[in-house]
């Protein structure tokens, strides 16, 4: 078995066990037994169970941070950047739903050094969103009367809550849900002139798409 496959198996096993029994209700021995590996295999990838919990978080924060950096470097127009950031932000709740659920359930048990590392990445992500919002104001695309900090924290709060209600296989796909978030945010944020730009029309929903159940 490849090392990456073993690491993924350990993580998938721990996610299932943590969801069922809680972080402190699961031992390394249980993870080793359930994943079909050895203690040597476990400690080759993780120094401790605490580091394993940190890595579970790092998977999904690294994904959104990478996508936000890609959006920042690949798009010149702030509206396009923000659309890409929001769409990838929403998608993480489909790609890493078990990771996110376990993290929010068990994050209180993280040791300070891991909490600090997580804070660094979360701050980097937040700052990229704030930077995009500031650029949008300077470019005349985003309403100047709407404060950057409150807008940024509102976006983070709105989208983060997705982990509480999103269910794979629901009425809407994760991409459709992402488009709904984009529409809501851009409709409230863009200036009237920016909304009229032809290249941004594709970011707004057509009549009837946002109805029905999620």
TrEMBL record:
Domain HTH tetR-type: 4-64
Domain of life according to the entry: Bacteria
Gene3D superfamilies: Homeodomain-like, Tetracycline Repressor, domain 2
PROSITE patterns listed in its UniProt record: HTH_TETR_2
InterPro entries: Homeodomain-like_sf, HTH-type_Tx_Regulator, HTH_TetR, KstR2_TetR_C, Tet_transcr_reg_TetR-rel_C_sf
Alphabetical keyword list: DNA-binding, Repressor
DNA-binding region in chain numbering: 27-46
Keyword DNA-binding in annotation: yes
Gene Ontology MF term list: DNA binding
Protein name: TetR family transcriptional regulator
